[in-house]
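Go through this chain for my students:
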Amino acid sequence: MRLVVVGGGPAGYVAAIRASQLGIKVTLIEAEHLGGECTNYACIPSKALLHAAEVYRKAASAPWLAGSLSFRWGEAVRWKDGVVERLRRGIEFLLKSAGVEVVHGVAKPGPGKSVEVNGRRFEYDYLLLATGSEPVDLKELPRGGRVLGTREVFGLENAPASVAIIGGGAAGVEAASLFSMLGSEVHLVEVMDRLLPGLDADVSRQVERALAGRGVKVYTSSRVVGAGGADGALELRLSTPGGEKRVEVEIAVVAVGRRPRLGPFAALGLELDSRGAVKTDSSMRTSIPWVYAAGDVTGPPYYAHKAYAQAKAAVENMAGLKSAYEPRAVPAVIFSDPEVVSVGLTEEEAAKRGYRPKAARVPLSALGRAVATDSSEGFAKLVYDGESRVVLGVHMVGRGVSELAGEAAALVEFYATVDDLALVVHPHPTLSELFVELAEAALGRPTHVARL
């Protein structure tokens, strides 16, 4: 059996490795760098720079350290580049070890069951499209000059003294966190009535308060209506609930979302949804039986971990295994300051689905670990069904909570009850104790949270 994978990002390279494990002969075609957008331009570069900024923030604010500190952006960017290169080479090594043939170039459909790249033709039994996504542009603020996308901003030679970030979703909030930690003047513009509009409202408000506390100027229910510039600056005109405002900044970053990218493979005529994403069944098969798709090209959410799972399901079905991509919970993690985790249903979503939701809430200040590491800002919320007490959702905001997302997903995925969770011994002192505290709060017997 022969498989051609188009795209070497999270979906593509994971599919290639899993297919090779199953005895399938694989050719992977990548137009740019292995690792795709996530490794090279988004997930990894942003988290590396956020880590560097967090180290600086903690050191600069520590009362037991003497002297002044300065953040060397250029050195941080070079370190980030080294991290990216290391991971990219790691992916290359894994593919080579798995016996995957890697071809660099732009692929296009060939005659019959074939793909053409660099004048070569590759026949296949199955084709997996992992062609990813691309950023959405704003007609009022086209990229170019002082208007950057999230890909370009992490490669700047110097950190901006002032920046306007257009889009209050995950990418925008992360960028606002990064530059505000470094002392830049930050303006964050979101067209909806709150930041992170798809998440729990309490979580969104906590993040907005934290950003505002560091001086970020947040404009919700607002949008860019015009732009101009002179003397090395960029002036934006914003429509806000309080009227039109003018903001002058060094650069603007457009982070208003992404859309699926098919490129030349749009010519296959696959069935698409209203957003241009490839439609698949739970096996990741498209409307053409021998063509599968995985990752961003199948639409939101645009997460690497979603791409991993879809890729494995796709190739396992090609190999004749019964595998399906039907998760109850795909974790959303935002590496802002403070971090955000959202898994499963919010209270509002649960009610719409016919549950009788209840919620338990615990502040991070209830945990010794959070207090000892000066990370007690934030909270966790457990959403559960009032009748069965099955866990429906977990929502957290605070430093370090990203590492708890996997356990939260397991609770939702495997229909854990609040009673089950209360019996699990968690190590002290760790942030993971939040789960026990939440369960006990739901059962009306909290240990480290006072009942008022």
Observations:
- Residues 73-97 form the longest helix (25 residues).
- The first strand starts at residue 2 and ends at 6.
- The domain at 332-442 is CATH 3.30.390.30 (Enolase-like; domain 1).
- The chain has three domains: 2-135+258-318, 147-254, 332-442.
